[in-house]
Amino acid sequence: FPRPVPATPVTIKKALDYLAPLAGAGGTDILKAADYALKIPDDPNRLRIICFLTDGYVGNDMQILDYIKKHRGDVRFFPMGMGNSVNRFLIDGMAREGRGTAEFVTLETAGEAAAARFYRRVADPLLLDVEVDWNDLPVEDVFPKHIPDVFSAGPIIVKGRYTRPGRGQITVRGLLRGKPWSQTLAVDFPAAKSDGSAIATLWARERIEDLQAQDWLGTQTGNPDPEIKNRIVNTALEYRLMSQWTSFVAVEERVVNVGGKQRTLDVPVEMPDGVAYDGIFGREAEVLLEQRQEQRGLGLSYYGVTANGALFRGRGTVPGGTAGGVGGGGFGGRFRTPAAPAPAGAAPSRPKSSTGAAKAPAAGPPPKPVAQATPALPPAAPLSSAVAPSLDTTATLGVGSYADVSGVALGDEASLKRLESLKPEERQAVLREAKLAPALRGLADLVAKEGKNGDLDKPGVPKVEKNRVEVQVWLNSLPADALEKLKALGFELSATLTPNKLLLGTIAVDKLDALLDLPWVRRVEPPRFK
């Protein structure tokens, strides 16, 4: 819409039709989205609200915060962090610089409740443009400099220092439903007491945040303002706080015995809760058919067989049920309505806006139902960006791609059940994509072709000695008989790097596929030795 419109059934349907064919496929670009939103002309009669839904997995956090601070104008930002391990630094920072409120929606949180809270806040804000007049009281270093608007019931919190004890009055001002409002309060600044109060620490944290905000871009580019940096470091050290320059990263090293040799390796850190490996480290976990085609930017998909035996690919909800999975930067979600396969040879496309950004096609009439007899399609048929009709519900589906493969790695019962319906060679291919690091794929064949007496020492390839390779095995769980089953496969345990989570050992290269068959094995990869 070029401007705000009433939320009538017609306009709501038009908005939903616009959103229906859109699909997230990673590549979070918050800065571009913020720039686009902030360049939309203001309506002088309304307070503009910008809502971001993201996990915040980006590398230019401070550049984004700097841009919002410099260009926000009278706009309010309401970021919603989606997932169990979101980038809270960025989400909270966007709310602070955008004078809004942050909301966090975990995988266990009801999305409807979060949306309702957001609506209540923006529909009837309590107090806007809040200011505090200290009436010449002896105060200094009061933070935040820009007091957030009050969008829901709660206190206005400011943190500062006073230079001497005393009493007086302060006046709080703002706009209440568009009209000036003020209230005068009595305050008492007692003599300082060393009673272990945390107020000083809270003030110091707020001061560090204020100093950081003065030089977001310098810090982002590695050229911080020396004076600001020194003030941050001094404050952090004095009050024992972590900051951009006083934090630490703990890297655990372990010396292990592998084949009689002492080796040192970094113990890897487990993925954040609610985040899939393939959602962060690229599209390694695409299924067999997806490898044969260019599928960049087309979102979550699956493949299956129609009632008349034709192979097809689709996006969104697997007919007959929904499947959880990852999207965007890698957080959980649900598929949408699947898109219909396009005619053979058609190229996937989306119309471009004047800025070159992808946009949805214009809303059209509701799609017609798919006929019961779906015509045969070749495996390489690309997807259509048209609004999706329903698929034949009698279709027998194979395993889902991308998100479903993540389900296989995590031992999801529904994903494993669909996996069992595949042909053996397809099933093994999906397991390799889901659980096996790229460096280990095809290693047995490589040893057979290029190895000498079972040994292979080749740049860029894990070293193989006597047909055995060193691996670290990530686990979803450790059943009571797990070690016995691993031993039966010839896995020799060298060390338990993380109890019930991560094992280090060696295994024959021709047994890697059998290792992937264990449902409680999440991922197999080469160790990172020093």
UniProtKB/TrEMBL annotation:
InterPro entries: VWF_A (IPR002035), vWFA_dom_sf (IPR036465)
Domain VWFA: 1-104
One Pfam family recorded for the sequence: VWA_3
Superkingdom assignment: Bacteria
Biased composition range(s): Low complexity: 334-348
Region annotation Disordered: where it falls in the sequence: 329-386
Protein's name according to its UniProt entry: VWFA domain-containing protein
Organism (species): uncultured Armatimonadetes bacterium
Lineage: Bacteria, Bacillati, Armatimonadota, environmental samples
